[in-house]
Amino acid sequence: VAMHTRSYKHMSAEERETLSLGLAHGQSLRTMARVLGRAPSTLSRESARNATRGRPYRAGTTDTQAVIKALEGHEFDGLKEGRSYFRAWDHQHVQDVLVGKAYGKELGLGHYQLLATVSGDLVASTQDQNVCAL
Asked: Which parts of the chain fold into alpha helices (H)?
């Protein structure tokens, strides 16, 4: 009688980062399973195995290339109004620039009057100016 052996393949660091980012942004395990081409049960076990009590799943890799790959083109809610994302072609974080006028310094205060918001896409370097080698 031939025994059926299960082919087990560990998730790669890139897959773990993708899962971590997807879950952090509210995607379901089933959705992430479709994205990664994995069985939902695989992701469920991975998530349960690596989540800590009261805290969400985090991939926890320090593999620089895996982190860079996982963040390429990633958009998220930043601390400012407008778009905040990591450009895929040079791995730079692009966000709007706030232009303001400081006042109250003479009183030891740090107040600012917001004068304008400039799109990050307008002030960031262009692809022609790129020197990134990653």
From this structure: 13-24, 29-36, 40-50, 64-71, 120-123
User: Which residue in this structure is represented by tokens 């996982």?
Assistant: 70
pTM: 0.47
Q: Which of 118, 119, 14 shows the shortest CA–CA distance to 72?
A: 14
CB contact set of 72 (below 8 Å; sequence gap of 6+): 86, 87, 88, 91
Arithmetic mean of pLDDT, 94-102: 89
List, for residues 4-59, the tens digit of each pLDDT value. 444 556 788 788 888 888 888 888 899 989 989 999 999 998 888 777 666 677 77
Burial level of 74, CB count in 10 A (0-12/13-18/19+)? middle
CA distances from 65 to 13, 69, 70, 72, 107 (A): 9, 6, 9, 11, 48
